[in-house]
Amino acid sequence: MEKFIVDGMLGGVGRWLRIIGYDTLYFNTNKKIELIRTAEKEKRIILTKDKKFASNFPKLVFYIEGNNTFQQFKEVVKKFGLQIKEENLFKICSICNTYLEEIEKEKVKNLVPEYVYKTKEEFSICRKCNKIYWEGDHCKYIREKLKNL
Prior knowledge:
Structural class: alpha/beta
Radius of gyration: 17 Å
Largest sheet: 4 strands, parallel
Order of helices and strands: EHEHEHEHEHEEH
Number of strands: 7
Strand content: 15-25%
Number of helices: 6
Helix content: 25-40%
Strand order of the largest sheet: 2-1-3-4
Shape: elongated
Distance between the termini: 19 Å
């Protein structure tokens, strides 16, 4: 499975890639050498809007042409033939790229809104940033958008 790095211009694309289950680091730095070193070491593909950077390192860096986040995301999906499978959705923290773990409902009682606690049964947690996830209405919206790919 492909692994990616997105630069500071493509944070939204990184979130979408994580949503569909792809390990995607976010680097908001001008030090391009850090991106290159990490990509080489971890066998990752760098995604950027920086045309010059992409042309200097064509084997490691892919230039994204799209003008909005979802266009850019679709471009990556098409270019790399990424698979969008239900079983891979919502498995990675969209914020920090850490795999989510299931957590017992009782353990999130005071960590989520009361309505959510009363109406949802399954929860996940990111052990790195402690964000709690559950199947909300936004998941339906995301699945609809992904169907059109």
